[in-house]
Amino acid sequence: MSCEVRVPAPLRSLTGGRGSVEVGGSTVRSVLREIEKRHAGLLDRICESGGELRSYVNIYVNDSDIRSLKGLDTEVGEGDTVFIVPAIAGG
């Protein structure tokens, strides 16, 4: 299965400037692992060393926040879009 992963601007230096990457995988976790194989260093920016999603990173599959689903074990289907969204803070 193939899905599109939308990469935010702050992480595009790790994907050669690409704003989206097509990868295979059946869960968000497997999709992120596949991206890491192609674009080393991206996974460290998204996940903690223990493998869990960093608190300031949000990931959506289509319109659904994976934290309200099965987290990194959320299923990804053919044609789905996975959005990596870093939290924005400021004042």
What topology does this entry show?
Blueprint: E1 2-6, E2 20-24, H1 28-38, H2 42-46, E3 57-61, E4 64-65, E5 81-86
Parallel strand pairs: 1-5
Antiparallel strand pairs: 1-2, 3-4, 3-5
Describe what you observe in this structure.
This protein is an alpha+beta fold. It has one domain (2-86): Beta-grasp domain (Ubiquitin-like (UB roll), Roll). It is 18% helix and 25% strand. It contains 2 helices and 5 strands. The chain has helices at 28-38, 42-46; strands at residues 2-6, 20-24, 57-61, 64-65, 81-86. A 5-stranded mixed beta sheet has the order 2-1-5-3-4, with helices on one face. A hairpin with a 2-residue loop joins strand 3 (57-61) and strand 4. The longest helix is centred in the middle third of the chain and has 11 residues, at 28-38. The radius of gyration is 12 Å and the shape is globular. The N and C termini lie far apart (41 Å). The model has no long low-confidence stretch (mean pLDDT 93).
Name the features:
91 residues, 5 strands, 25% strand, 18% helix, five-stranded mixed β-sheet, alpha+beta, Ubiquitin-like (UB roll), globular
In terms of DSSP E residues, the strand content is: 25-35%
- The third-level CATH topology is Ubiquitin-like (UB roll)
Question: Shape, please?
Answer: globular
Rg value: 12 Å
Distance between the termini: 41 Å
Q: In summary, what is this structure?
A:
The protein is 18% helix and 25% strand. It is α+β, with helices and mostly antiparallel strands and 91 residues long.
